[in-house]
Amino acid sequence: MPAARLSRQVVVIGSANLDVTVTASRLPREGETVLGGELRLSNGGKGANQAVAALRAGAEVRLLAKIGRDPFGDRIYRDLVAAGLPADGLLRDESAPTGVALIVIDRQGRNQIAVAPGSNRLLLPDVIAQHEPFLTHGTVMLVQLEIPTVTVERALQFAKAHRMTIILNPAPAFPLSDELLRDVDLLTPNEIEAEVLTGIAVSDLPSAEAAAKALLLRGPRAIIVTLGARGALLCTASVARHLPAIPVEAVDTTAAGDAFNGALAAALAGESQTDARDTNRLWVLQDAVRFANAAGALAATRRGAQESLPTKVNIEKLLAEQPKP
After folding, report:
1. What is the structure's pLDDT at 273?
2. How many C-beta atoms surround the C-beta of residue 204 within 10 A?
3. How far apart are the first and last CA of the chain?
4. Separation between Cα atoms, residue 155 and residue 163, nearest integer Å
5. Any idea which of 86-90, 150-154, 245-249 has the lowest mean pLDDT?
6. In this structure, is residue 30 part of a structural domain?
7. Were 276 and a residue from 140, 268, 311, 320 both cysteine, which residue would form a disulfide, CB within 3.0 to 4.6 Å?
8. 163-197 CB burial, b ≥16 within 10 A, e <16
């Protein structure tokens, strides 16, 4: 008999890193050194960020990730458990260091990021079978691409077999097979990721719509192209709809996309399982994207990754302050 499901359960399979961030006056050009920056250490990784984002946005969340048995891993383990994520999914590995992201942020909140995956590379497909009872509680599965692609493929297959709503955030950007994309309910690329997946340069709403329609032909049931300060474009087989961003003064966009994806997953987990999987119910998706837009906007107003992620109360407060759509 399948395990009983909690009403708002999001399962995240993904990365956990330590972020080493330098805030500088501007982003360096190739070969250039920019002096005068400030250093900050914080917990990150797209998987962990999106799990914490979904948790703060009101969902019950389980994260499956792999971290090293080193001081960085000790810190991440302690902080994620303290945040409310179950310890059972935070796997420790003796053979590789914890992943590290090196981030430079300018005064406008723009960033450059390089990642050393470390133990994230060892989150292999067999861990899904080994932790099946832990994962089957989910109604929404949220996955990114900072772990091996074979693990992403297995995660999507697992989620499909258990009738979960599947959200794939295709970040960082690289080409994906049609076979993988056919298992996806919601694909959430940003402009760069949409271009990598389609070959269509995304610079405005018409080009974003062209890229989204090309992606729909490859199998996902809905595409949400995130457009930064311009909001998001939601496309299904029947409609394309632009949902504008909420204007804020951005200071650090590092985890804004993760806030968006985590909040999106939390919003859909709050729907009935049938409504969440039915991407033809446009009102469900529109409300979820508006909620996610607000989360991303709030995250951009604070520095750091996980420390910038907003709570459900603050997301709903920001939405309540906006004119009715």
Report:
1. 52
2. 11
3. 44
4. 12
5. 245-249
6. no
7. 268
8. ebbbbbbbbebeebeeebbebbbbbbbbbebbbbb
Active site annotation includes 258: yes
Q: Are 168 and 147 in contact (CB under 8 A)?
A: no
Residue 173 inside a domain? The answer is yes
CATH code of residue 270? 3.40.1190.20
Number of structural domains in the chain: 1
Q: Give the residue numbers spanning the domain of 125.
A: 9-16+45-97+120-320
Residues near 201 by beta carbon (within 8 Å), at least 6 away in sequence: 195, 207
How far lies 93's CA from each of 115, 251, 288, in Å? 18, 35, 36
In a domain, 232, yes or no: yes
Q: What is the pLDDT of residue 3?
A: 42
Averaged over 150-167, what is the pLDDT? 96
Contact 251, 109 (CB under 8 A): yes
Half-sphere exposure at residue 228, Cβ-oriented, CA atoms within 13 angstroms = 16
pLDDT of residue 275: 52
Catalytic-labelled residue, pool 19, 93, 258, 287: 258
Task: List the structure tokens of 61.
Answer: 């969340």
Sign of CA dihedral 129, 134, 139, 145: negative
Q: What is the pLDDT of residues 173-200, one digit of tens each?
A: 999 999 999 999 999 999 999 999 999 9
Residue 190 backbone zone (phi > 0: left; psi -120 to 50: alpha; other: beta): beta
Residue 113 lies in a domain: no
Give residue 236's Cα distance to chain centre.
20
